[in-house]
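About this split. The held-out portion is used to measure sequence recovery: a designer receives only the C-alpha cells and must propose an amino acid at every position. Recovery is the fraction of positions where the proposal matches the reference. Here is one held-out target exactly as it appears in the evaluation file.
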C-alpha cells in the first residue's frame, strides 16, 4: 500500500508537469526544420474536347520538402499538385519533372527540394470517337419440361453509347452482357446484368448495366379452323378456285400467346405456278404468327378447278 500511495501522491501535480513537458516538446518539434517526402497529385489540364489520354500515366509524384514541423504538418493534409497543360498536344507530351513545377498553398513556408520519382511523365493522346452499339445477351437457361420461351430475350435499352479512343471504338460492332445461366425455369425471368467491355482501353459505356426480360410460358397446342386458302398467280382468263377452300392448322406455342391467335393471324396460300403437269393436287404454303411452330394441318392437299 505504501508503494501505491507514493505513486499516486499528488498525482495532479505530476500530471500537470508531464503535460507541460509534452507541450514544450511539441513546441520545439514544430519549430525545428525537417525534410519529408509527400505524394503530390499529377493533373493534366486543357485536354482538347475531342481528344483523350490513353496511357496509364502516374497519378502521383513523390516529392521531398523542407520546412518547419508545423508547416510540414499542415502540408500533409493540403492540396499539392503538378499541373500539365496539354492544350497544344495531339499525340504525345513528354515532361521532365522539376521542383519549380510543384504547386503548394502560398501560406505555407516550405521548400521543394527534389522530385524523388518519377523523373519524367508521358501523356499519349488520341482522337475520341463515339457511337451507339446494340447489346447481345449472353443468357442461357434450362427450361422445365412443358415450358417454352416466347419471343427473343428483351434488353432495355437495346443500344448503349460507347466513347473512347477512335482506334478502339471504330472496331466495335456489338457489346455482350455478362454470362448468366438459369436452371429449372418455368416462369418469366427479369433482372439487371452488366455489360462486358475492356475498361483498360479507356472506354466509357453509358449505361454500364441493362435490364433483361424473358417471357416463359407453358407450352400449349391449338387448332385454328376455317382458315381461307388463297390462290396466287392463277391465269387471268378463267375463274379459278381452290377445293376445299379452307384448312385447319394445329400450332404450338406459349398458352398466353395461343389464346390470342385467330384464323386472321395465319396466312395460307397455293401458288399456281408451282403446279406439276402430271399432278392435279397442290400443297398449301402456311405462314404462321411469330413465336409459334407448326404441328399439323388438314387437309394435306388441294385441287385447283375452273368453271
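Reference sequence for scoring:
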Amino acid at each position: 500500500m505504501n508503494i501505491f500511495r507514493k505513486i499516486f501522491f499528488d498525482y495532479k501535480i505530476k500530471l500537470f508537469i508531464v503535460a507541460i513537458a509534452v507541450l514544450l516538446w511539441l513546441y520545439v518539434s514544430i519549430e525545428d526544420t525537417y525534410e519529408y517526402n509527400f505524394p503530390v497529385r499529377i493533373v493534366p489540364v486543357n485536354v482538347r474536347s475531342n481528344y483523350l489520354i490513353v496511357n496509364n500515366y502516374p497519378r502521383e509524384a513523390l516529392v521531398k520538402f523542407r520546412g518547419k514541423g508545423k508547416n510540414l504538418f499542415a502540408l500533409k493534409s493540403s492540396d499539392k499538385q503538378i499541373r500539365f497543360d496539354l492544350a497544344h498536344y495531339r499525340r504525345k507530351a513528354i515532361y521532365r519533372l522539376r521542383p519549380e513545377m510543384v504547386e503548394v498553398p502560398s501560406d505555407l513556408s516550405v521548400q521543394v527540394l527534389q522530385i524523388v520519382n518519377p523523373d519524367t511523365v508521358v501523356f499519349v493522346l488520341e482522337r475520341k470517337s463515339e457511337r451507339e452499339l446494340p447489346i447481345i445477351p449472353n443468357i442461357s437457361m434450362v427450361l422445365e419440361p412443358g415450358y417454352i420461351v416466347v419471343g427473343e430475350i428483351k434488353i432495355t435499352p437495346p443500344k448503349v453509347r460507347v466513347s473512347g479512343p477512335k482506334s478502339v471504338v471504330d472496331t466495335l460492332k456489338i457489346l455482350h452482357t455478362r454470362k448468366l445461366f438459369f436452371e429449372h425455369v418455368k416462369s418469366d425471368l427479369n433482372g439487371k446484368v452488366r455489360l462486358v467491355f475492356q475498361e483498360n482501353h479507356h472506354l466509357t459505356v453509358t449505361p454500364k448495366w441493362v435490364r433483361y426480360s424473358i417471357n416463359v410460358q407453358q407450352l400449349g397446342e391449338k387448332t385454328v379452323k376455317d382458315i381461307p386458302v388463297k390462290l396466287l398467280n392463277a391465269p387471268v382468263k378463267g375463274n379459278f378456285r381452290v377445293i376445299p377452300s379452307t384448312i385447319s392448322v394445329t400450332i404450338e406455342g406459349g398458352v398466353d400467346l395461343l389464346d390470342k391467335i385467330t384464323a386472321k393471324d395465319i396466312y395460307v396460300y397455293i401458288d399456281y405456278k408451282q403446279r406439276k403437269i402430271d399432278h392435279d393436287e397442290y400443297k398449301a404454303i402456311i405462314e404462321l404468327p411469330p413465336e409459334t411452330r407448326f404441328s399439323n394441318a388438314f387437309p394435306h392437299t388441294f385441287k385447283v378447278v375452273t368453271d
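Annotator remark: The mean pLDDT is 88.
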